[in-house]
Amino acid sequence: MFTAIYTLITTFAYIVSLPFLFFLQLKSKYRNAIPARFFLKNNPPFAKRAVHFHACSFGETKALEPLVKEFKEANISVITQTGFEAAKVYKNADVRYLPFEPLLWFWLKPMPALVVMEAELWYLLFYLSKKRGATTFLINARMSDRSFPKYKRFSWLYKKIFENIDYVYAQSIEDAKRLRALGAKEVEVLGNIKLLQKPVVSKTYEKQKPIVVAASTHEPEEEIIATEWVMHLKDKTTLVVVPRHPERFDEVDELLEHIAKREGLSYHRLSENPTLSGDIVLVDKLGELVNIYTVSDLVILGGSFIEGIGGHNPLEPAFFHKPIISGPHFHNHKESYGYVKGIKIVAPQDLADALEQKWQPTSIKASVDLSPLVERIKSVV
């Protein structure tokens, strides 16, 4: 009865949302994802019966690498276009967008195992996969301080979801406690598998001056960081700005060009001049952040200087032992921050002081053993 009612509600939501979806797909951010997920355009069911891995976006999909490579064949579904691009690099995997839930009734095929990353708790994905013979896994599961009360308000729904999840692998003991409180069973603490993700460097950049990277920034962080950089470091460093979302490249370009002209500084977009020779450089190409990290002298990690984003993963710059400055709003990545030694956390108004102090290298202080998880998945394949 619950499944029938849930399907009716999600189907109604789907029908009501159709006009909005038609307009939303015109945005570049959704140009491929919405037609594939909601209208199944160029998005047929998986052709081969293999382990089905599912992740949301770019970071989660990249983190699947050490697991995916353990299997001769794999299927990967994603939600976002950046996640799709990340999944395409896996030579042993077929890649699809995960359709909106009611469409899964006729899209989802039998599989030996379903392995879902982090918080992708789609009821029909787990229910239908299990009904069609899969052993189901939720891996790298986490439940932040901020999100847990919201999940508890819908505990009746999550209890139903967890009824269809056979094994849960949590990032921490606290995550495990919260997941059990929501109805999860067979919960084990494995750690954060993103610790196993070794950044792949695809290009070597030369630099003329020390590099300060404003990484994965959101509006208005570019202006906050650039303003303090101009006041304290413009004469002795290069500022490299890497916005989190590609659809903001033009908006950030306009801002940085204005600042450069006002201050008499050189500026260019990386897509127009593939060097770090300017005083200010906008990285408007995907997949370059790791390459930039390798030559950086300081990383200012975005998504953390404003409320509502929750921060971004600090593990990649810490892998290269780069000094990291972060804002105080990193609740979505609290566990990852705990794995990194040496991050300097400051309020936006204190960023200036942090820029002028001695920059200390960071290091990763934890490890993860994936073998128990791999063995359990292989045991059901």
List keywords for this structure.
381 residues, alpha/beta, Rossmann fold, seven-stranded parallel β-sheet, 37% helix, 17% strand, Glycos_transf_N_sf, transmembrane helix
Can you put this structure into words, describing what you see?
- α7 packs parallel to α9 (155-162) and α11 (221-232) runs parallel beside α12.
- This protein has 17 helices and 16 strands.
- α10 links the parallel β6 (167-170) and β7 (187-189).
- It is globular, with a radius of gyration of 22 Å.
- 37% of the residues lie in helices and 17% in strands.
- With 381 residues, the protein is an alpha/beta fold.
- The chain has 2 domains: 2-192 and 369-378, 3-Deoxy-D-manno-octulosonic-acid transferase, N-terminal domain (Rossmann fold, 3-Layer(aba) Sandwich), CATH 3.40.50.11720; 211-364, Rossmann fold, CATH 3.40.50.2000.
- The strands form 3 sheets. Strands 3-2-1-4-5-6-7 form a 7-stranded parallel beta sheet. A 7-stranded parallel beta sheet has the order 10-11-9-8-12-13-15, sandwiched between helices. A two-stranded antiparallel sheet has the order 14-16.
- It has helices at residues 2-24, 33-39, 58-63, 65-68, 81-87, 104-107, 123-131, 148-153, 155-162, 173-181, 221-232, 249-263, 289-295, 315-319, 334-338, 351-356, 371-378, and strands at residues 51-54, 74-78, 93-97, 113-117, 135-141, 167-170, 187-189, 211-217, 238-243, 267-269, 280-282, 298-301, 324-326, 340-341, 344-345, 363-364.
Fold topology:
Blueprint: H1 2-24, H2 33-39, E1 51-54, H3 58-63, H4 65-68, E2 74-78, H5 81-87, E3 93-97, H6 104-107, E4 113-117, H7 123-131, E5 135-141, H8 148-153, H9 155-162, E6 167-170, H10 173-181, E7 187-189, E8 211-217, H11 221-232, E9 238-243, H12 249-263, E10 267-269, E11 280-282, H13 289-295, E12 298-301, H14 315-319, E13 324-326, H15 334-338, E14 340-341, E15 344-345, H16 351-356, E16 363-364, H17 371-378
Parallel strand pairs: 1-2, 1-4, 2-3, 4-5, 5-6, 6-7, 8-9, 8-12, 9-11, 10-11, 12-13, 13-15
Antiparallel strand pairs: 14-16
Helix pairs in contact: 7-9, 11-12
